[in-house]
Amino acid sequence: MPITRRRLLAAGGGLALAGATAAACGSNTGRGGGGSGGGLSHWYHQYGEAGTEQAVRRYAAAYKKTRVSVQWRPGNYDQQTAAALLSGSGPDVFEVNGPTLDQILGGQVVDLTDLVKDVKDDFQQSVLAPKTHGGRIWGIPQTVDAQFLYYRKSLLDKAGVRPPRSLDELVDAARRLTDRRIKGLFLGNDGGAGVLGATPLYAAGLSPVTADGKVGFDDPAAARALAKIRRLYEDKSLLLGAPADWSDPSAFVQGLTAMQWSGLWALPQITKALGDDVGVLPFPADGPAGKPAVPVGAYAAAVSARSDRKEEAKEYVRWLWVEQTRYQEDFALSYGLHLPARISLARKADRLRRGPAAEASRYAAEHGHADPLLWTVASKVAYQDALSRIIKDGADPEGQLKAVVRTTEAELARVRKRS
Amino acid sequence: MPPAVLRSPKPKATRRQRNRTLWFWVFVGPFAVGLALFTYVPLGWSVVLSFFDAHNTVTPRDFAGLGNYRRILSDPEFRSSLTTFAVFSAIIVPATFALSLALALAVNRLRWAQAFFRSVFFLPTACSYVVAALVWKMSIFNGVRFGLANTVLGWFGAEPVAWLATTHPPWYWLVIGTVRLWLQTGFYMILFLAGLQRIPVRLYEAAALDGARPGWQTFRYITFPALRATSVAVALLLVINAFQAFDEFFNLLSDARGYPPYARPPLVYLYYTALGQGQDLGLGSAGAVVLALVIAVVTVVQARWSGLGRKEE
Prior knowledge:
The structure holds 2 protein chains of 2 kinds. Chain A is an alpha/beta fold. Chain A has 19 helices and 12 strands. Chain A folds into 2 domains: about 40-140 and about 300-365, Periplasmic binding protein-like II (D-Maltodextrin-Binding Protein, domain 2, 3-Layer(aba) Sandwich); about 145-295 and about 375-415, Periplasmic binding protein-like II (D-Maltodextrin-Binding Protein, domain 2, 3-Layer(aba) Sandwich), CATH 3.40.190.10. Chain A has helices at about 5-25, 50-60, 75-85, 100-105, 115, 125-130, 155-160, 165-175, 195, 200-205, 220-235, 250-255, 265-275, 310-325, 325-335, 345, 355-365, 375-395, 395-419, and strands at about 40-45, 70-75, 95, 130-135, 135, 140-150, 185, 255-265, 280, 295-305, 340, 370. In chain A, α8 runs parallel beside α11 and α11 (about 220-235) packs across α18. Chain B has a two-stranded antiparallel sheet with strand order 1-2. The longest helix of chain B has about 40 residues, at about 10-50. Classes of the chains: A alpha/beta, B mainly alpha. Chain A: Keywords: Cell membrane, Lipoprotein, Membrane, Palmitate, Signal.
């Protein structure tokens, strides 16, 4: 059958109509203009713990003032949100592992100070501080994630090794616990460069950036601590190339390693598999000025400055992450294990009162540190690269750190100029 | 001839011509619009961004002149990514070239089940780089004792090797190289097969009459020269692909916390600079322009050197 222009146009029109109908039915992004009505769009990254997605959808459904559509996003969430914030098609509300200083300075997130002004002191200050810039709060911490050193009590007893209280003891313990079938320690498949981050600096009594905005690791103690992480690699005490990385306790519960660095969220899975044959420790101190270190961080609820419903979004965030304490408690304690961001909720949480969870909670309160806001992405990447070279290539720690000091100074100067 | 007779077929021809134009735009238009919207506009915008301080914005206001170019060219990490990839190309291009040519010659000589073997070698091309990278990373080359490669090593009493985490020796190149070879060799084999099937049989017959021995001599003096056009195109595509490598590197070596400083291709570096949390879109764009220029120069030099487009002798 010959195709005439009229027939072609009719077919094209039909296709366009079908497309528009499909879009109206199936592409509800929660934003205005769609066939199913407007509403707020709320993005979460994909949590590993079962039940979390259903829980956040339940919270959103319970909000009566406006419809909230939850997007559960797998993959590189931080990259996805960073890209989405550049356009108007992103979320209204989103959780963010930040926001970063550049996101704040770039005007990509909304000031949320007034939402928490009455309860500010009830938030864990270690995680609220990195959400604060210029005296304003740019994200509301949802829950606190902390990282610890898990160890198998029975394996340490068998090897005659005591739970390590210093970095030297950790190096020694890992070496003595290593044999043909099992490695002493798992710090992630990259040997610890990614997950440890600034933790060894804190363990040496230093910090990446000081409270007054200066480089905090231009000190021989930093190089000394990092050289000991290299020692772990040289001794072949580190598990490398495990099928699941450090955030998953599989290597630990499957007996591939005697000690593993992982998050508090993994504790329920670990105790389910190993019962009470597990202990938990902070990253051990190094040197005379050193102290134990527990990295803490918090995903925060933030409002996109590109949203055309900023006030509604703020109202919803206030409702969920400031007023609804029972949801906050449920979110922190019912799926995996996290520390509630609110001190009052953490104090009354039964799950944090016994066993390793109680110890972990105490360690986080006593030794918790979060990366400062001034420790920018560029500084972190330069530091992680240096740490990787020190650990895997045996590069000179002092020389590597000098280069990172220069990068960090340049970054501090840049953000000071933008502020 | 009367003018009426001359004019009469003209309207018919014009309508056909108009129809042709319409069909041309029906078929080409959507692609042209897509190309303009998703390739040329972003390309142009990227060049504009490269002259601005564009942190966390695609509509910057602070003009930076050549500042981003100075920064990217003085950045040792970017330079190292270019150097690493020059070395990678120097290894992977000849390796893929030789393997795909060898496979094409082998398959071409088969008297039975040729279609089967052609399909077997071509099938990996249909596999996504991401999936293949994950299979390589999690089951063949994982670092624990029950990984496939380590199980085989274990039969000979060797210790498990952390393939992706060991930099001395750099075993990660073995993983990256094998996955790339597995994925792309089949495609280039098909190109060579097409080239081989275009060589006239009479050439071989004439060579045989002149006393050429089958095997290396025939390949050296008949087959390889006759494949010149295909070989040049394959080499060119391989070089461009090598410089554009991203998927398997990213999926084999990155984790939630970032990417190690070794085996970092330029595109992964630019991805983290521009689209990662750093969001330095000005610097990333300057890097993209520099990389595009490098690829263009390498391609032109290679094309000139190999005589691409030169008339077949």
